[in-house]
């Protein structure tokens, strides 16, 4: 069965986070956007909910990790090419994000990462389609 995926991330400043991800080319679903949250559309099956930290904390009894100092998850996005990997990371840095490490070239796989304004780590990966066929 195919399932939709909704990732929920706490953010310090919703407007700044929307501007950051807009600079990377993402769009937002206005039907699920208010002062506390917005729905960032990855594709028809995946959405990232950006939630103001105080609002995010209402969904859990656990303490909310500070992604600038602790890793709780690493989110990965596919890319269409090596150039696409570099372009997405470059846009993220230009929009105020950070590049935590150098891009790696494994031949059949090429990828790197960026941190968003709150420190959430996003990998951007391209794999040679012929290598995925076995």
UniProtKB/TrEMBL annotation:
Pfam families: Ble-like_N. This is VOC family protein. Residues 3-127 form the VOC domain. PANTHER family: BLR2408 PROTEIN (PTHR36503:SF2), BLR2520 PROTEIN (PTHR36503). PROSITE patterns: VOC. InterPro entries: Glyas_Bleomycin-R_OHBP_Dase, Glyoxy/Ble-like_N, VOC_core. It comes from the Bacteria. Gene3D superfamilies: 2,3-Dihydroxybiphenyl 1,2-Dioxygenase, domain 1.
